């Protein structure tokens, strides 16, 4: 993996002033993660209104942050570009159904980003995020360590939240990942997960002595986690706060040079016996973007499910004509 010196500072350009982009922007302001936030949207009136509304929250944030209506010229000195633009997922539509429409939108966006000299970390939030992270890598020509997707960071947060409620413990005590596609073929990694330091397989095995349906219960909990977005979209039309906070967490890891592992969508280069595919897996992030991908030790069933997820994504990526 080739690493280059990325643009310094903390200026962030957000592309897309919809629900996700603004939830992310609001999280950034309240956490003080940037000194200049520029927001770009095709709907200039919407961008102006969101910027004004966000700017009015700055005095309460405890931080001195400049919020502006952006143009692609802002990308020249931006540390990060975060792409939240594109058509949204409709009720009953899978994330992979969005590919053709959003690839075309990304071609226009990425051309303008790179024409203005961007050399920072590019974070993709638009679905299908794994495919569009690959598309962004190819369209921009940036090194792969500088192109990251939100991956399964949100799925993992949902999983830890659900497990924490099941076992009546704080989510911070739950260490378990969702990996694979951010979508229907994702999977939980139970074999290496733990709760308060106790391996999850041991917890489940002990519970099965009293409750023979515990394995079914855990599987139902995973399905609830995987399908959470569909349930939320059906009721309110979009998801925003969870993904906005997930993007802010990724941003903090990068700008504060944390060397922390988060399950983002990153390029595999031999890990899990796969190459040339972006997929969600724990990845060490720092100021240069991706430091390295972490290859989890999966059991046989988990490996087969992960490989099937990667194969699904590979077929969709090949349909874009950008492979090779």
Describe this structure in words.
There is one protein chain. This protein has a domain at 12-149: Rossmann fold, CATH 3.40.50. The two termini are 17 Å apart. The chain is of the alpha/beta class and 324 residues long. It is globular and about 60 Å long. The strands form 4 sheets. A 6-stranded parallel β-sheet has the order 3-2-1-4-5-6, with helices on both faces. The model has no long low-confidence stretch (mean pLDDT 94). The chain contains 10 helices and 14 strands.
Summary keywords:
alpha/beta, six-stranded parallel beta sheet, single chain, Rossmann fold, 10 helices, 324 residues, 41% helix, three-stranded antiparallel beta sheet
Q: Can I get a quick summary?
A:
About 40% of the residues lie in helices and about 20% in strands. The protein has helices spanning about 20-30, 45-55, 100-115, 130-140, 155-165, 200-210, 215-225, 230-235, 240-255, 300-320, and strands at about 10-15, 35-40, 65-70, 80-85, 120-125, 145-150, 175-180, 185-195, 200, 260, 265-270, 275-280, 285, 290-295.
């Amino acid at each position: 993996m080739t690493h280059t010196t990325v643009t310094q500072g903390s200026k962030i350009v957000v592309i897309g002033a919809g629900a996700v982009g603004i939830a992310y922007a609001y999280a950034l302001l309240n956490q003080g993660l940037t000194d200049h936030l520029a927001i770009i949207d095709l709907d200039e009136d919407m961008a102006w209104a969101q910027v004004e509304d966000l700017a009015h929250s700055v005095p309460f944030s405890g931080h001195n942050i400049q919020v502006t209506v952006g143009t692609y010229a802002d990308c020249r000195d931006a540390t990060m570009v975060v792409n939240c633009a594109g058509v949204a997922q409709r009720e009953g539509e899978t994330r992979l159904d969005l590919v053709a429409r959003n690839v075309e939108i990304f071609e226009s966006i990425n051309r303008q980003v790179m024409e203005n000299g961007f050399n920072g970390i590019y974070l993709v939030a638009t679905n299908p995020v794994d495919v569009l992270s690959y598309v962004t890598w190819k369209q921009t020509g940036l090194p792969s360590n500088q192109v990251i997707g939100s991956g399964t960071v949100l799925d993992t947060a949902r999983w830890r939240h659900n497990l924490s409620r099941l076992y009546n413990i704080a989510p911070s005590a739950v260490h378990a990942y969702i990996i694979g596609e951010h979508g229907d073929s994702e999977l939980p990694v139970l074999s290496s997960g733990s709760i308060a330091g106790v391996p999850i397989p041991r917890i489940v095995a002990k519970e099965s002595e009293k409750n023979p349906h515990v394995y079914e219960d855990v599987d139902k909990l995973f399905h609830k986690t995987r399908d959470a977005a569909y349930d939320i979209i059906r009721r309110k039309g979009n998801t925003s706060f969870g993904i906005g906070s997930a993007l802010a967490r990724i941003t903090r890891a990068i700008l504060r040079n944390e060397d922390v592992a988060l399950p983002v969508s990153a390029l595999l280069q031999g890990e899990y016996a796969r190459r040339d595919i972006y997929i969600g897996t724990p990845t060490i992030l720092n100021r240069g973007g991706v430091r390295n991908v972490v290859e989890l030790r999966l059991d046989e069933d988990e490996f087969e499910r992960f490989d099937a997820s990667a194969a699904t994504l590979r077929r969709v990526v090949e349909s874009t004509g950008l492979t090779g």
